[in-house]
Each structure stands twice: as C-alpha cells, then as structure tokens.
Amino acid sequence: MSDKKVAVVTGASSGIGAASARALAADGWHVVVGARRLERLEALAAEIGAEAYALDVTSDESVAEFVSHLDRVDLLVNNAGGAKGMEPLVDTSIDDWRWMYEVNALGTVRMIQALMPKLEAAPDKSGLIINMGSIAGWAPYAGGSGYNAAKHAVRVISRVLRLEEHDVRVTELDPGRVATEEFSLNRFGGDAERAAEVYKGEVNLVAEDIAEAVRWVASLPARTNIDTMTIKPRTQS
User: Fold this and answer.
1) Best label site of 8, 19, 75, 179, fewest CB within 10 Å?
2) Alpha-carbon Rg for the chain in angstroms
C-alpha cells in the first residue's frame, strides 16, 4: 500500500460503487471495497489492485469486522443503498421501508461512526466523506415514499455532519436517472421487464458519470469542500 491515500467504497460489487472504485484506483488511490457479494468484490479487487472485504452496512457486527482490516482511511464513499417498491404510500410494505432506511440512512451512519476517528486522523485535515444521495432526497414523487424518506435522511445526515465540525469534509452527490439495471431489478423484485421500462426511450446517465464526480471531488485540495452536487441527464428537468 505504501503511502497511498486510502479510499473505502461501500456497495462496490456493481453499479456506481464498482465504477467509483475503478475511477479512484485509476487516479492513484489505494481502494478498499465492501459489499455483501464477496465473489464479485474479489473479482473487482483483482482487476484494480484493491482490497475486498465482505460488508453488510445494516449489521453492526459486519461493519466492525470490515473496519478491523483498516489502519488508515482518507476517503469514505457511502454508496451502499437501494430502493424497493413503487406502490402508493397506503399500499407500501413496512418491511420495505425498514430495509430502505437501514441500508440508505442507518448504513451511512454506521460507516461514519466507525471510520470517523481514522478520517479525522488523515494528514492535513484532508479526510473526506462522500455520501451518495439522490434527487429523490430533494423532490418527492408518486410511488417513491419510502425511498424519498430514506434519501431525505441521507441529506440531513450530510447537513448535520457539516455543522458538527469534525475537520472532515462532507460532500453529498445527488444523481438523477442513472441506468444501473440492478437498482431497478432490486426495486421491482427481479422483474427485468419493469426494470428496463424505467430507462426505455430516455437519455440516461451511466455509473461512470457519477464515478467521475466522485473521482473529481476526491482529487480536490483539503481547503476545498464541495457541499452538494446534483447530476442529471440533459433531458431530466
């Protein structure tokens, strides 16, 4: 690892997380990737020269085990997240709400709490947290109540963390419509046809677009904090 700066990326087995890990590694970071699907993580780690450890951000024990492997952390990319369901509020599943809150909001809190001491110890106050929000955290939409609520929580987490002044920079990235098939597959319970319909006939972002934003924010000097960044395809209002 030598003296390379260390970036942790959660939810890195696919989509934006995997793309962010690749972009950071290409930019000279030593990357540590975490997700539940260890086989995929290990393949990614072999490709980019990273470290891979199993991580379930909804589990205190899993987070503690993951963190036990880390001596230094300069950057935390809280990417693990997801949505379930598109039913009207009155028909939504409380279990789906609970899962979305656990992985998007409480998972973000768990990782911040576990890694804050290492981030605070980064040289020259250069520690950085990038929380993956969503335009769903700013603009509610029909059928999105549970996911809207969870991503609004991520926005509050980012805002409050800045106010509490840990000498660690905090950035919230808010993507719009990104064509990552697994996100929609998960949302629609594996229904590939419904998942594909979300992006059909639209101009969509791809995971690498958001990964480039992660890479750029992470490349800036320690005096700089990008507060929020909203990234949409050109046709999304």
Assistant:
1) 179
2) 17
Domains and CATH numbers, the chain: 6-231 (3.40.50.720)
Q: Is 163 helix (H, G, I), strand (E, B) or coil?
A: helix
| Residue among 53, 101, 141, 147 flagged as catalytic | 147
Tens of pLDDT along 158-211? 999 999 989 999 999 999 999 986 777 677 777 677 777 777 889 999 999 999
- Across 22-141, where does the E strand assignment appear? 30-35, 51-54, 75-78, 128-132
Residue-wise pLDDT for 77-113, tens only, equals: 999 999 999 999 999 999 999 999 999 999 999 999 9
Residues 6 or more apart from 206 whose CB is under 8 A from it? Answer: 178, 179, 180
Which tokens hold the place of 158?
A: 């980012």
Backbone angles phi, psi at 98, to 5 degrees: -60, -45
